[in-house]
Amino acid sequence: MNPIQAPAWAELLRHADHARGTHLRELFREDPQRVQRYSADGAGIHLDYSKNRVNDVTMAQLVALAKQTGVEAQRDAMFSGEAINNTEHRAVLHTALRNLGDAPVLVDGRDVLPEIRSERARLYAFARRVRDGQWLGHTGQTITDVVNIGIGGSDLGPLMVCEALKPVADGPRVHFVSNVDGAAIQQALRGLDPARTLFVIASKTFTTIETLTNARTARQWLVDAAGNESAVARHFVAVSTNRDKVTEFGIDADNMFGFWDWVGGRYSLWSAIGLPIVLSLGPDRFDELLAGAYDMDQHFRTTPLAENLPVILALLGVWYVDFLGSRSHVIAPYNNVLHRLPAFLQQLDMESNGKSVRRDGARVEYATGPVIWGEPGINGQHAYFQLLHQGTALIPVDFILALRQPNVLPGHHRTLMASCFAQSAALARGKTADEVRAELSARGMSGDELEAAIPHRVFGGNRPSNTLVLDELNPRTLGALLALYEHKVFVQGAIWGLNSFDQWGVELGKQLASGIEKVLAGETDASAYDSSTQALIERAIHAQQG
Ligand code: G6Q
Prior knowledge:
By secondary structure, this protein is an alpha/beta fold. The protein has 24 helices and 13 strands. The chain folds into 3 domains: 258 residues, Rossmann fold, CATH 3.40.50; 147 residues, 3-Layer(aba) Sandwich (Rossmann fold), CATH 3.40.50.10490; 38 residues, Orthogonal Bundle (Phosphoglucose isomerase, C-terminal domain). The protein has a 6-stranded mixed sheet with strand order 1-2-13-12-10-11, with helices on both faces. Strands 6-5-7-8-9 form a 5-stranded parallel sheet, sandwiched between helices. Strand 1 and strand 2 form a beta hairpin. Helix 13 crosses helix 14. The chain starts with 6 loop residues before the first helix and ends with a helix. The model has no long low-confidence stretch (mean pLDDT 97). It binds glucose-6-phosphate. The site of glucose-6-phosphate (G6Q) has 14 residues, from loops. The site of glucose-6-phosphate has 14 residues, from loops.
């Protein structure tokens, strides 16, 4: 249903006027139980959402909106393998990849679980051979380095997880190359020994130009060093759904690990696309990652909406975007190993819900996916947080913190935790002119100097945030955290009536690039393009000639 026709939508519009006039300071002052009331737990993750501009009426109406827009039925349709990706006529079953249950999951009447499990067993067997030193390079040496070549969904997930769990990595070193800029692969290969390097070519379609260009360069690098083509079989494996293209590229089908068209690229780290994770951390830890995601899947499927973590996060997001005019949302992980999480979530959220037509093709009459951005929080405090505290825009923040992590150094973690808690408190309560005046007078400032200083030092506060706390950062809690965000994005898409699982918006640029590449190669002229684009092409051609 169109969400603006839901009775709760009109209620929320009315209620938003009241909410605009209420400050988080007051909400905390009025209700000593606020944090208990607005906290929830699931799959090892604690969510404190009390620093949001909501009260019981807001939450009840938001939950009503979820019900009225059919979130539960849409969720069940996804888990049961219905073709909810309606523009590509595909089921959406990344959840089947981590399903540890026994009940069959049917796609076109066929249970996909046996196939998933047997492909994972092949993947694990291969990874064990590499990790145990049984899989040897062409000169009989063990593999010390793995280079994953892929982009978008075939890069961001495995890269982020490998970084997050690096402190417990015990396999070969993993490197990631995504950008077609030759500098990327040159830098990755520098210092690597071809005889001990394994390339994973990760591409669902195996037609992606950036990935194939990098893969060809890597292949040449290996063949040049080895002196023969036959070395390729010991140093190249592929992860793809396209067997024909993989063999055409020259990778033996025995060295290919498959997945299925019902796994979207940005939801694919749980499939064979996770190979770098398995190589770096081992099958047992990958199993834990899957188990954590499965925990969250169960939570999402069975917990009442008002206590359901992904639903709560989604509803709060809809509240700010559609009722309080927010256009962006910050992801601020505090543990440094989560430094690629914002980039991963940027794709997950923006490629899924950055859309302006509904699944039936009708144009939306309301705002949808916000801009997602961020960087590790503690670094952000010395950079972009200024705008969060005193800028003109309303930008909710997700603070993410693991209380324990491997190899904590004395004197470091306490500062990290204190900063995280301090920032959300500062955003919520702010600092009034009276407080600034008292502080500055106590320091001896007075008169005009004091009055002139005040406006610059006032913090309006009332800036919302969620705090997501993991007791410990490990594969299981990480799996749960990622599944939490996947489902948050799902719920928002369901409310907004979007198909969150296609990405037609990335196609036009690709189409034009292939034409422009022909112009740059001198094969056609530039007359099909606007004058700006023609001038840029001209400039590039001159630079190449010069
Ligand atoms: C993700 C997108 C996109 C995709 C890349 C790589 O959901 O579809 O980011 O993952 O374009 O595609 P291939 O894996 O087919 O190379």
